[in-house]
Design brief:
It is a single-pass membrane protein. By secondary structure, this protein is α+β, with helices and mostly antiparallel strands. The chain contains 19 helices and 13 strands. It has one domain: Cytochrome p450, CATH 1.10.630. The strands form 5 sheets. The protein has a 4-stranded mixed beta sheet, with helices on both faces. It has a 3-stranded antiparallel beta sheet with strand order 3-13-10. Strand 1 and strand 2 form a beta hairpin.
Length: 495
């Protein structure tokens, strides 16, 4: 009896201590963020007044950055500096790269899902993984293997799914869902040698894909909380969203561990997937899991996001779709049913321009943040205190007249062409694939995948939006995801 009473007293004191600590920590956090800031930006953010005029937070930020003389703003209540100034971007990603790492605050948000993966670390761990990934992803046989996977997925699954909906009355297909399934199957085959089968004709529910989606979504939502203390307390007590996140990550881990264990008992020297290649140099299975899960995250959602908004733009600009078809007919012939080869894709400059122009307006990753290690001053004169979050905003940068001219809001692939040849631009003006030392290693492979998928569908099908006048809204997440999907009608083309 006495022991039981003592136990309850200890538990009571424990909860009182935790509650007191939480209140004090939250108070210090709020004091540091200056929640009382009366500036127009902070008041509009705190009250959500911005939503009266803008459908998406990224559009409001774009509006503010367009009005700023320096292309930089402060959101005091978030302790965040946001910039669309190319000189600042180059300074962060190249000139003073070491002073603007991902930082522990960012790493803790995604740490449970990504662990020590390349997208969640700095320093020697990042350098080691980048060097290793660079050697693999620049390997010609790896590029060929990835291309073969995508081509096979298009022929055996993407086309049959589209054909099954073609011409059907009320046969509405969610294009975003299809692209997410397609890219998940493709990246899992490439990364693990695993086929989740998400794009089979029945469009089955994949337990792995659902768990992975949920883990990504809930991890991203951590960044939206008023204080990291909130989600950390929920994680400590295994409550609410943190309980769901733990369960989702557990399922992802179980599958990853089973795959790695299975491959350890095989001769992986003849296997071409990334996991098998990495296993020849890494003995730490948990580290392997972190590395490959990071590649799945990067290669799945970004591709699906880019393809979704590309077809959304094409639906409003049919002349661009016609120009892509005409170009492909010149390169491939008008009657061929074959998919484009790697060499033929390189000859299609207008297609390349259209894909880049689409991502200028709708980058898959709308913003990216770093944390300043030591007091600094950006090239535009903005003072940055140690520990401050600094965000560069590719979505807003694609809408800056100072970078793209007065027609910056127009979808014009021609701006990327010079005498009919695709021309590259300053990567710090177009940081869709990041730039500087952290530039995306899979950039070229991603572009090839986007182009072959887009071209194949454009040549085989007519695609029209089911709700052409609906307002485009994005859901919060690590990548740009269209809220409620992208419903379309599909018709097979008569060639």
């Amino acid at each position: 009896m006495i022991f039981e009473a003592f136990t309850w007293i200890c538990l009571f004191l424990f909860f009182i201590t935790i509650a007191s600590f939480s209140i004090v920590s939250l108070s210090v956090f709020l004091l540091r963020l200056k929640p009382w800031c009366s500036c127009e930006i902070c008041q509009s953010f705190v009250s959500s007044r911005w939503s009266l005029e803008f459908s998406n937070l990224c559009d409001w930020y774009s509006h503010l950055l367009q009005k700023s003389k320096t292309g930089t703003i402060r959101v005091h209540v978030l302790g965040n500096i946001i910039t669309a100034n190319p000189e600042n971007v180059e300074y962060m990603l190249k000139t003073r790269f070491d002073n603007y790492p991902k930082g522990k605050k960012f790493s803790s948000i995604l740490g449970d899902l990504l662990g020590r993966g390349i997208f969640n670390v700095d320093g020697h761990l990042w350098k080691f993984q980048r060097k290793m990934a660079s050697l693999e992803l620049n390997n010609l046989s790896v590029k060929s293997y990835a291309f073969e996977i995508v081509v096979s997925e298009i022929r055996s699954r993407l086309f049959p799914v589209f054909s099954s909906f073609a011409g059907k009355e009320n046969g509405v297909l969610d294009l975003q869902d299809v692209f997410r399934r397609f890219s998940f199957d493709s990246i899992c085959k490439f990364s693990f040698g695993l086929d989740p089968g998400c794009l089979k004709l029945s469009l089955p529910v994949s337990e792995f894909a659902v768990a992975f989606d949920l883990a990504s979504k809930l991890s991203a939502e951590r960044a939206l909380t008023v204080s990291p203390l909130i989600w950390k307390i929920k994680r400590f007590f295994n409550l609410g969203s943190e309980k769901k996140l733990r369960e989702a990550i557990k399922l992802v881990n179980v599958l990853a561990e089973e795959l790695i264990k299975h491959k350890r008992n095989m001769d992986v020297s003849s296997h071409e997937d990334l996991l098998s290649r990495f296993m020849t140099n890494i003995d730490d299975d948990k580290f392997l899991r972190d590395i490959v899960i990071s590649f799945v995250l990067a290669g799945r959602d970004t591709i699906a996001s880019a393809l979704t908004t590309f077809f959304l733009l094409l639906s409003n600009h049919p002349h661009v779709m016609l120009a892509i078809r005409e170009e492909s007919d010149q390169v491939m012939g008008s009657k061929t049913q074959d998919l484009a080869s790697f060499k033929q894709l390189k000859e299609m400059h207008y297609l390349q321009a259209a894909v880049h122009e689409s991502m200028r307006l709708f980058p898959p990753v709308q913003f990216d943040s770093k944390f300043c290690q030591e007091d600094d001053i950006l090239p535009d004169g903005t003072f940055v205190a140690k520990g401050t979050r600094v965000t560069y905003h590719p979505y807003a940068m694609g809408r800056m007249e100072t970078i793209w001219g007065p027609d910056c809001l127009e979808f014009k692939p021609e701006r990327w062409l010079q005498d009919g040849i695709f021309k590259r631009v300053n990567p710090f003006e177009y940081p869709v694939f990041q730039a500087g030392f952290r530039v995306c290693l899979g950039k070229e492979m991603a572009l090839v995948e986007m182009k072959i998928v887009a071209l194949s569908l454009i040549r085989q099908f007519d695609i029209q939006m089911a709700n052409p006048s609906h307002t485009l809204k994005f859901t919060p997440g690590l990548t740009a995801t269209v809220k409620n999907g992208l419903p379309v009608f599909v018709q097979e083309r008569n060639q």
